[in-house]
Here is the input.
Amino acid sequence: GAGVSQSPRYKVAKRGQDVALRCDPISGHVSLFWYQQALGQGPEFLTYFQNEAQLDKSGLPSDRFFAERPEGSVSTLKIQRTQQEDSAVYLCASSLTTATNEKLFFGSGTQLSVL
Amino acid sequence: AQSVTQPDIHITVSEGASLELRCNYSYGATPYLFWYVQSPGQGLQLLLKYFSGDTLVQGIKGFEAEFKRSQSSFNLRKPSVHWSDAAEYFCAVGAMDTGRRALTFGSGTRLQVQP
Here is the structure.
């Protein structure tokens, strides 16, 4: 596609439910990132993939958060047993190469509300 | 650890007036620096970046930023603001020496443009 696509656009979950958020990066992009953006804050890094390899997961806040990119393209962020503090916009970004100064292309995000 | 401070949470300017958004970073070595813009319901879009060379960098939409090592600053400027510039602006820093891909974002500055 022309840009990074994320689905669903909005997700409402009851506390304790599991959710799965999908990211379709730009075709051919090697690097893929997940960021969490709380209301009124800047994005915070969650995890980074280079192709299918998860090279950095230092930003995942707990073991309830899990991400995968099994074929090096589409990625899924899964949150188990959701809590109210998980409510945020989850942003996916991709870049063509692995260079740190490479431009990131962001999706519009998935807004998660945990009730 | 790297960090970014955007001291101004909210700025209002008149259309046609000049603009400067402040960004201060903390990082032990020469950083990669970025400015991203986020319009409501949209993903973040890269305005400009600095990673070496000329400390005055030009970006899209008429924006520029100047890297000042002595002040640990990377302020964003525009000589004449347009109504369409109303958005949230984020400064971000990346590590040049560690190879770590994660960016650290500031908390953002919301720009309002008065007619």
Q: What stands out?
A: Chain B touches chain A at residues 4, 6, 32, 36, 41-46, 49, 51, 90, 92, 94-96, 99-108 (CB under 8 Å).
